[in-house]
Amino acid sequence: MWYTYIILSDNNKLYTGITTDITRRWQEHTSGVRGARFFRTCKPVKLCRLEHFDNRAEASAREAAIKKLGRSAKEALIAGDSPVPLPALPQA
Fold first, then answer.
1. Fewest CB within a 10 Å sphere: which of 17, 35, 59, 86?
2. pTM for the structure as a whole
3. How far is it, in rounded angstroms, from Cα 84 to Cα 8?
């Protein structure tokens, strides 16, 4: 199982990434060990969105689509009412 996630940082920026283990990845981001370069200058505050996928290709495609969005579209996605068409989520 692969996950695409959005994290809010302490400087109010949104970070998007993928992982197979969100708990481990959160710990890496907060500890600074093996975390994303993005978190060298700020700290993660809140996991805002988590989506699951069957494979890395789907998760990577979703991550790329989210990263192309502007701030307001990302906030709408987090709120659950995104006006931007994105690939359909797999059924739980």
1. 86
2. 0.84
3. 20
